[in-house]
Design brief:
Strand content: over 45%
Structural class: mainly beta
Number of strands: 14
Radius of gyration: 17 Å
Length: 266
């Protein structure tokens, strides 16, 4: 059961590992970049059922409750939370929370927090990203970082602002994420397009596949596919992870506070 919930959480976290963001693709200003964002805003909340086979084992939410000041700038306070359903609590209780403070103008992180509560295991980690001095100051030390480095949550939100329309199937892009004490690399393959039906509706989607490398942040136990709405919002609709003991699916059940209309919804 421990392994099951561990893989479940990592499956959803792969939503954040969608694509490399480079300064060559996003305009850089005199000091800190500015990114055009039509994909999300404060008030957005996405809810998912996490299923193992036909059984709903947990619920996950991705939300932006408010805008806060950090380093003197406006930042989206982004929350990613995973909880086991009451039926599973007696066997293995999960209450995981990830937070990032995402610069409103530049869509890069200033601060990241991780709070894991899984059975008897717990872990707390935090990092402050000095995007000017290129340093990550964490609860475990200080490290040099690339310009506009992402954490595992902020990378996903930045990826939602990009235009995928010119990508071809099997084209690969590259991601850089900072976690724990180093920057990790990950290739991501653009798979193509597909219509998907979940509890929240039927959507035209694009599909990406993170290609996990041994020794990185995540170790490969099977393939992971991610469906994003094929419109300006790039809302995650479905995640499917094939593992040794079967597969785990996360499917969108509800959404609110979107930045615009889901034109991909049928």
């Amino acid at each position: 059961m421990t392994k099951f919930f561990y893989v479940t959480v990592l499956t959803l976290l792969m939503l954040s590992l969608a694509i490399k963001i480079t300064s060559a693709k996003i305009p850089v200003g005199d000091e800190l970049r500015k990114v055009t964002n039509k994909a999300f805003k404060d008030g957005e909340k996405l809810t998912f059922d996490v299923k193992y086979g036909f059984v709903t084992a947990g619920v996950a939410t991705m939300s932006i409750p408010k805008i806060k000041k950090i380093s003197g700038r406006d930042a989206y306070h982004v929350l990613f939370e995973v909880s086991s359903v009451p039926f599973f609590d007696g066997v293995f209780k999960v209450r995981d929370r990830y937070e990032t403070y995402l610069d409103v103008q530049g869509i890069f992180p200033w601060r990241f927090e991780q709070h894991i509560r899984e059975g008897k295991y717990s872990r707390d980690f935090s990092a402050f990203f000095d995007q000017k001095k290129l340093k990550a100051k964490t609860s475990e030390g200080e490290y040099t970082i690339p310009k506009y480095v992402n954490d595992i949550v902020s990378a996903f939100y930045l990826a939602r602002t990009l235009d995928y329309s010119k990508m071809k199937p099997n084209e690969r892009v590259h991601l850089f994420n900072f976690y724990k004490d180093k920057t990790h690399e990950l290739d991501v393959r653009y798979v193509g397009k597909e219509k998907v039906t979940v509890s929240a509706g039927t959507f035209d989607c694009i599909i990406v596949e993170p290609l996990v490398k041994e020794g990185g942040l995540f170790k490969s136990e099977g393939s992971i596919l991610i469906w994003l709405t094929n419109d300006d919002l790039k809302v995650p609709v479905k995640v499917k992870s094939k593992i040794v003991i079967g597969s785990i699916d996360a499917e969108l059940t509800s959404y609110e506070g979107l930045a615009g209309k889901l034109t991909s919804k049928k």
